[in-house]
Structures are given as C-alpha cells and as structure tokens.
Amino acid sequence: MESELREKIVSHGCAVRTVRIPTWLLFFASCCAFVGLDGCAARRVPAAGERIAVLVGAGDIADCSNLAGAEATAALLEKIPGTVMAVGDLAYPDGTPANFACYDKTWGREKVRTRPAVGNHEFHPAGAAYYFQYFGESAGDASKGYYSYELGAWHIVALNSECEQVGGCQPGSAQEKWLRQDLAAHPVACTLAYFHKPLFSSGGAHGDDPTVKPLWDVLYQAGADVVVNGHDHDYERFAPQTPEGKADAARGIREFVVGTGGKNHRAFGAADENSEVRNADAFGVLKLTLMNGKYAWEFVGEAGKTFSDSGYGVCH
What we know:
Number of helices: 7
Strand order of the largest sheet: 8-9-10-11-13-12-14
Distance between the termini: 17 Å
Order of helices and strands: HEHEEEHEEHEHEEHEHEEEEEEE
C-alpha cells in the first residue's frame, strides 16, 4: 500500500512532482490513464514491483475467400505489443494446410508471440492435425489442446471447448480434472481463461453453449476473473456473473465474446441477461492490460470504425 500511495502521476508538458495520493484517487487516475486522455493527460507510472502484461486477440479469423477482415485485425496486432491469444476458428473453412496459409499471411505474422486455443473448424481434419503441426509446442499437448502459462502476475488457461474431441467436459472428465488441479496448483490473485465456445452469448448463429458449463463451474469455484471466447461472429461484454447466469459483482466472472478476428459478422438474437455491450459490424481485437490485482480492457476496432469499449476491473 505504501508503494502505491507514493506512485507518481506524470503529465506531458506539466510540472512533475511526487505527491501522496488518497487510495480512491489513485484508482481513478490509473483507470483514466489506461482509457487515454488528451492534452495534459495523466500517464500512469507503475509502482515499484508492479508487473504489467498485455494479452490481445480475437477468434474467427482468416478465410481465404476474403482476407480483408483478417488483414485489418492483423494490422492492429502489429501496433500492440504483448502476447497474442488466437481464440479458435483461425483458418476457414477446414483448418487445412491451404487454409492455414491464409492465416499465416495475416495473423501468422505474429506467430512467435501467439498462444492459441483450438476451435471447431480446426477439428474438421481428424484431431485438428494441422493446427497442432502449425503451432507446435505453443498449442500444448496435441492429444489435449489445453494448457496454462503465466503472464505477468496472472495465471492464464487456454482450454479446449471441443469437448467431444477430448473425452467430454463433464465433471470427472480428463480436462475438468486437469483444470481443477491446475488452478489449485496456481493460487494466484488473478486468473483468466480463454476457449472458443462461450457459455453465454446473445449471438443469433450459436448462442449459449452449456457443454462448457462444468469448466465454468471449476473456474468460478477457484475465483477466476475473466473468460474470453469467440464462435459467434460479434463482440459482446457481460457483467460479472455465476455459471448459472446470475449477476455476481463480488465473485462473478466477466466474459467477453470476441469473434471479430475477420471472418464475417452475424446478427444478434435476443440479448442474454447480464449482457452489457454488443456490436456486430466492426472487426477488431480485445486488448487486456493485466496488472497486480486488476485489469483494463479495450476493444480496438479496425480502421474506419467508431465502435469502442473500454473499462477497468479488480480481481477477486
């Protein structure tokens, strides 16, 4: 706390001095710094020992028949440092070597810093064979398609929502047991998971997918903070909620659907409860700035689009 109270707020073109700042004001100032202010804007300087990392990405990306959307989002990635999450359905229509050649022309430019999650289109060839060949060790064990890693102060889990391909996602399944053990072995303050199919979605094409609820149950019980998905070709942000879809500001998981990587857009159906923001006409990526005990989100849209979404959250 003492180090946070002594943080500096530095202004471009303004006098610089160290001040003692009340906790509530420090929280507000750091939040504003991440969403961005013009002119003599506050720029946050991390406190000593603070670990900041960026995780950025989307799902539903490259289709050789029209690469304009994937090119637009790949151009965004080039300007955003950090780890790239490719959230499934990366190479349409079938995840073949020819399809991945089009992914490689776009998001493949960031392959060295990409940690992917597998989608249903990758499994059109048996076992998602070329997906695992293309990404190698970055995609985890090819017999599982799920893995975890550390990013700054956060624990990150990439899961396989193609449940039938890995023996199911039900309680007692191999993936569910692995997830429970993995989270128990990493009792950090902040945890994020990403996988292709969302438990909650207002998308008109797919919508809610209850097959992944047992994974949500484990994440919720372990105090996870954020889930990122794709599958529906739109952007949607939910308020923190339980696996049963009840609002829970204290312990709920905030879910983002980011199927905006470039394939196409699809219309929404009826809005799910707890859905806060929806857009279905802008390609873009979700940028998550991960800090000690907190995070900021920003939807970065393709050039020429005005839709944006940003905010700030605190870990449980």
